[in-house]
């Protein structure tokens, strides 16, 4: 297929992936609103369990064909993903700056090469080595505003980023052998089961669910989770992983923008500089993909 004939397909994939980043960013707003009524672990568990069951409908034929080994591999990654998302939602529960939190969580992308190198012996590119100090410098600026006293939410978001980086690595290995839609349905459902189990042990559940609670949960399940993962899976099948990776970089920028518009959040100069360094580390980490994307657009 020529470049010219592929262009409409590439453009469609780009627009869908851009929409995915918007949905991912706006789901931070939905989640923060929902936490006014929900215990955090109960919310994230219910959200992901319902979303997983929704994705199981179009993914049913793929789920039926999975072997016992594929179910085991998918569930294993789902458990780690569940712990990561439980940590993330606790960070969101205590967060005072959603934009800052989104940039810290995005460090998962930069940490993937480091974790792969440390635990699997994979080689790290020069770009990854340059990206790491930029990322940690940005993180330092966010946590050193009043001396070295990182906020609890910052520590939780960074821990979630570490766990998510491990999830990305293991998920990449599982995805090579499991259909994407079936894998997403299993993993989202497992996340829900893990978070609800944790919630049952440590949280007090509300006696009644208000209309607002149902509304934010519905938006989080359908728009922020099921639609987002479905569109991401579909769009990634229309383009290369490196091309998709470039567009996904902008998610924390959207989140910070929506947080400013939605909640009136503002950042200090050091926070802005710290977030900028983290964003720069994302660009550097994916520089080869960025260069390919720019060449493709020229």
From TrEMBL:
InterPro entries in the record: Diverse_Substrate_Transporter, EamA_dom, EmrE-like
Ranges where the EamA domain occurs: 13-143, 155-284
Transmembrane intervals: 9-30, 42-63, 75-95, 101-120, 127-146, 152-171, 178-201, 213-231, 243-263, 269-288
Bilayer disposition of the protein: Multi-pass membrane protein
Cellular location(s): Cell membrane
UniProt keyword terms in alphabetical order: Cell membrane, Membrane, Transmembrane, Transmembrane helix
Origin superkingdom: Bacteria
The keyword Transmembrane appears for this protein: yes
Assigned GO CC terms: plasma membrane
Protein name as catalogued: EamA-like transporter family protein
